[in-house]
Amino acid sequence: MYFCAGGKPTVDTEILSGNFLQDISDHLANYTIICNTKSPVVIERPFVRIFSERNKQKFTNYLENSNFSEVLSENDTNEAYNRFHTIMQSAFEHSFPLTRLSHNKSLRCSHKLFSIWQPTAILNLQIFTLCHMTIFRTIICDMWP
């Protein structure tokens, strides 16, 4: 069954209707129930790393307390790099953990990015239009001298 709300028919609704009482009269208590059968879409907020001054200081302290002597004493360069990478990766993961971005912060961030993008988009559109207008004029002038 289709339900048209605002001009868009959708199949994600179920409509139930009927009478509460049956009588000879045409004045009956009717009911209509519109059920949404579509499951709600849950938007996952992204994971981000927060590079605050506190976390940067935590990273510095972690590296200062790390033991790099095993990296320096290693003769095999590949093994030395792997140990160095492991120390750096663990320091990074410990100091800048993945945290879920709050909904408000996500909205503010997207609005800020849009505010930065919007003037450049208008400028790019003006440049694009100006270039194509000059090309159009040269073609027209070449066709009809």
Description:
With 145 residues, this protein is an alpha+beta fold. Among the domains are: 3-36, no CATH class; 47-100. Helices cover 53% and strands 18% of the residues. The strands form 3 sheets. A two-stranded antiparallel sheet has the order 1-2. A hairpin with a 2-residue loop joins strand 1 (3-5) and strand 2. The chain starts with a strand and ends with a helix.
Q: How far apart are the termini? A: 64 Å
Mean pLDDT: 76
Strand order of the largest sheet: 1-2
Radius of gyration: 32 Å
Main beta sheet: 2 strands, antiparallel
| Helix percent band | 40-55%
- Write down the overall geometry: flat
Kindly name the structural category.
alpha+beta
Order of helices and strands: EEEEEHHHEH
Helical run tally? 4
Give the quaternary arrangement of the chains. single chain
Question: Hey, roughly how much beta strand do the residues contain?
Answer: 15-25%
The total count of strands amounts to 6
